[in-house]
Each structure stands twice: as structure tokens, then as C-alpha cells.
Amino acid sequence: MKELDESLPSTITTETSRAHGVHPRDLYSWRDGGEIIELSRGAFRRADAPPASYPDMVAVAHRSPRAIVCCISAAVIHELTDEMPASVQIAVPTRSHTPVITYPPVMVFRFDEASFELGLTSFEAGPAESARIYDAARTVVDLMRFRKRFGEPIAYAALHRYLAAPGPRPALLLEYAEALGTFGPMSAALDVASAR
Questions:
Q1: pLDDT band at residue 75, thresholds of 50, 70 and 90?
Q2: Staple 104 to which of 4, 56, 144, 167, CB 3.0 to 4.6 Å?
Q3: Mean pLDDT lowest for which of 45-54, 80-89, 132-141, 147-156?
Q4: CB 137 within 8 A of CB 176
Q5: Where are the domains of the chain?
Q6: What is the mean pLDDT of residues 86-108?
Q7: Nearest-angstrom CA–CA distance, 176 and 140
Q8: According to the UniProt record, where is the region Disordered (predicted)?
């Protein structure tokens, strides 16, 4: 059996292990020996790696590199909600392949390709490991778009937290809302919030 190589990254996929000349049987032997931990099918983390702040999101980012963390999952990262979703919520473009990830559980949203990367940024899901995520303003607008699905209180609470945080940009909310077809509800919600 090959020894776990120091040159391997903290998170290893079967693809990256192959690129480093590691046979799948060695990978699974390391897993069975506790040298690596399986985060998701085909995604592993070195047991000696610093702990990831968001291991589920590290796994999803490696399993579906084009996906973007969205909705309530993004609101948690941006501290816009205290809700904890039962699954990692990710967006993929409408015409792309839907990722099939059984663990961690994911909820997949299909967003229009023209506005798919609107508000795209990234965050550190683990030490020196980033994941794609929508920025706070896009997250607020998405929660407003899906307020019937997630509940209006979540959308309005996220809006209030966004506006109370340092450097809010109401004009950016309206710009995103116009691009995403929810200008009316977003504008009305901002009027109510600013009247308080």
C-alpha cells in the first residue's frame, strides 16, 4: 500500500488522487485506516488537515465545482439568518447537468444562465479552500424571490439584517431585483424597511 503523500491537498477527490498517481485501492485503504475521512462519495479530507469550518460545503464544492451556494445556505454564511437548512442549497445553470449528491444532502435550484453568475463571490469553507457563493445582496433578493417557498419572515429578516450590517447597498438590491424579475416586491420591502 502506498503511503499518504504530504503533497496531497487537504481535500482529495478520486480525480485529484489519480492525478497524483494514487490508485483507488490506496485511497480506500487510507479511508479504512482513518488517514482520510470520506466527506461525500469521491471526496475525502486528510485526517491531519486543519478542520474545515463548513465541511459539507467543501464536499459539495469538490463534487460540483460550478455550483453556487445560494438561498438559506448563503444567508447562514452571510449571517442574514439563524435558520439552519436541512440541506446545502446550491444553484446550477438551467441547462446544466443536475449534480447527484446523496451526502451531504443538497437542494438544487436551477437559475437562468443569463443571470447565473450575478453577485457571484466566494468564501473560505475550509483553510485555504474556497467555495462559490452569492453575495449578501443577491442572497437577500433570492430569498425575496422564493419568499412563498421559504416563508416571508425569512426574506424580511434577511433584508433587515442586510440593511443593519455595515455598508448596506439598497441600490444594489434593486439592481439585482430588476435583473431577477422581483423588482416590485423588493422595492416595496425596502420602502417598508426604511419607514421604520
A1: very high
A2: 56
A3: 45-54
A4: yes
A5: 11-46, 55-195
A6: 88
A7: 10
A8: 1-20
The span from the CA of 57 to the CA of 73, in Å, is: 9
Percent of the chain as helix, strand, coil, to the nearest 5: 45, 20, 35
Q: Each residue of 38-63: b (16+ CB within 10 Å) or e?
A: ebbebbbbbeebeebebbbbbbbbbb
In the chain, the amino acid numbered 123 is F
In 80-115, which positions are buried (b, 16+ CB within 10 angstroms) versus exposed (e)?
bbeeebeebbbbbbeeeeeeebeebebebbebeeee
Confidence (pTM):
0.86
| C-alpha cell recorded at residue 131 | 467555495
Among 78, 72, 71, which Cα is nearest to 136's? 78
Measured distance CA(52)–CA(47) in Å, rounded = 11
CB 9 within 8 A of CB 126: no
